[in-house]
């Protein structure tokens, strides 16, 4: 009996799903996120097909960085000024419309690189507002002691989205084409509206603020005093800037390890497999009180796994285990399998870090300012990978595909260790007594 209880305790805590409003929002976000992954991977593949340039692929993410930052920050002020449900629905409508336009252009054979860039920018900006408002809603739907479980469920959601999405995108693009891939995203996105529409009204607690520069400045002033929240932002930016190899995957599949779009999808899905498994067995994670230490160790494991992935690419460049003619129809199966393993470890480590970071954000920040801090948080979470895409794409263009993850992994491990040891208050963070 005790052994069975111990096994159950190792699995994810599903209590948040007993709250119908949270369950509907979680399910709708998961299905819509799956469709979003289809479009993200398809746009990357289409740009690479047109340009044959990893830097052009990297620029998709970087082009949306400034609009996403502006939208995320302003969206956070909107979430602290108005009904958060209404803010999320309005931003979701913009994302739906831009994706429908992309599908229509592709069916009409009118898509260009610039259209792909423009629509990606709009989607990035609108999605950051949806995420900021939705994250600020969660602590109002469930008790505080269930926040780690809710964050772990987000890891399950992310795992399902990215595990199935990129692999499905690779298959759809290869066998049905880009237009069908974008159309499937439009259909799946309707579930997001159902999840948000059925929520109760979620107006901010306390005195309502007027959205604008002054309220944003108040958010930054709070962050200046909140050393624990501030450091977790810095640590995440460090990990994502130097350890985000996603922009390299199309070239890895096309010219280095072979397998073409299917390899691109498999490598991306590997990250999600790790996130999914770490959430599935997240029971012990929710019982850890020192979240600062957990973040530090998880990010350092992430850096080591990215370093190992880079070494696998270096082995591919040397021709290890390669068939006679590496290409879309001749994949280097051995090295692809090893790369999948290390990317899965990176996904698991990043997800553990995300669970602790999200829980710290939602538990330690007051509701009256939570929208603005979530806006900044979303900018960090979504902006870091875009800077990382520019870093990886630029450095790979100047050197070799394997060099950015090798260098980045070393930088992450060293820099995170130094930053945390310079901030003992972060290492002492206690989830039982959350302090920002």
UniProtKB/TrEMBL annotation:
PROSITE patterns: MFS
Database matches in Gene3D superfamilies: MFS general substrate transporter like domains
Subcellular location: Cell inner membrane
Keyword DNA-binding attributed: no
Main location: membrane
One Pfam short name: MFS_3
Entry membrane topology: Multi-pass membrane protein
Domain of life: Bacteria
Domain (Major facilitator superfamily (MFS) profile) ranges: 21-426
Residues forming coiled coils: none
InterPro entries linked: MFS_dom, MFS_trans_sf, TM_effector
Transmembrane segments annotated in the record for this chain: 21-48, 54-74, 86-108, 114-137, 158-180, 186-202, 233-256, 262-281, 301-322, 334-356, 376-396, 402-420
Keyword annotations: Cell membrane, Membrane, Transmembrane, Transmembrane helix, Transport
Protein name, UniProt field: MFS transporter
């Amino acid at each position: 009996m005790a052994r069975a209880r111990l096994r159950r305790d190792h699995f994810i805590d599903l209590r948040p799903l007993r709250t119908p409003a949270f369950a509907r929002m979680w399910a709708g976000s998961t299905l819509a996120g799956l469709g979003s992954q289809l479009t993200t991977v398809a746009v990357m593949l289409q740009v690479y097909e047109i340009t044959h340039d990893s830097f052009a692929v990297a620029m998709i993410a970087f082009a949306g960085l400034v609009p996403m930052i502006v939208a995320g920050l302003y969206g956070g002020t909107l979430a602290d000024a108005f009904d958060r449900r209404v803010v999320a629905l309005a931003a979701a409508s913009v994302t739906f419309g831009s994706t429908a336009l992309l599908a229509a252009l592709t069916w009409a054979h009118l898509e260009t690189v610039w259209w792909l860039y423009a629509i990606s920018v709009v989607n990035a900006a609108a999605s950051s507002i949806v995420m900021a408002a939705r994250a600020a809603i969660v602590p109002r739907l469930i008790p505080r002691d269930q926040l780690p479980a809710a964050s772990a469920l987000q890891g399950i959601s992310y795992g399902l989205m990215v595990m199935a999405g990129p692999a499905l995108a690779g298959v759809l693009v290869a066998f049905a084409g880009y237009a069908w891939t974008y159309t499937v995203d439009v259909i799946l996105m309707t579930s997001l509206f159902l999840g948000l529409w059925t929520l109760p009204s979620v107006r901010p607690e306390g005195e309502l603020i007027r959205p604008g520069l002054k309220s944003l400045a108040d958010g930054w002033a709070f962050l200046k005093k909140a050393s624990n929240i501030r450091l977790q932002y810095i640590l995440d930016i460090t990990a994502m800037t130097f350890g985000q190899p996603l922009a390299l995957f199309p070239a890895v599949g096309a010219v280095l390890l072979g397998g073409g779009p299917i390899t691109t999808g498999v490598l991306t899905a590997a990250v999600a497999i790790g996130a999914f498994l770490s959430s599935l067995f997240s029971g012990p994670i929710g019982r850890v009180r020192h979240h600062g230490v957990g973040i530090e160790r998880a990010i350092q494991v992430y850096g080591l796994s990215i370093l190992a992935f880079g070494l696998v690419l270096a082995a591919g460049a040397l021709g290890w285990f390669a068939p006679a003619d590496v290409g879309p129809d001749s994949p280097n199966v051995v090295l692809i399998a090893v790369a999948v393993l290390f990317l899965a470890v990176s996904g698991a480590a990043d997800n553990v870090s995300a669970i602790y970071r999200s829980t710290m954000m939602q538990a330690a920040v007051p509701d009256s300012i939570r929208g603005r801090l979530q806006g900044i948080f979303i900018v960090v979470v979504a902006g870091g990978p875009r800077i990382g895409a520019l870093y990886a794409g630029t450095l790979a263009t100047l050197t070799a595909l394997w060099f950015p993850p090798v260098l980045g992994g070393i930088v992450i491990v060293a820099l995170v260790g130094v930053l945390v040891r310079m901030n003992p208050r972060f290492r002492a963070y206690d989830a039982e007594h959350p302090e920002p």
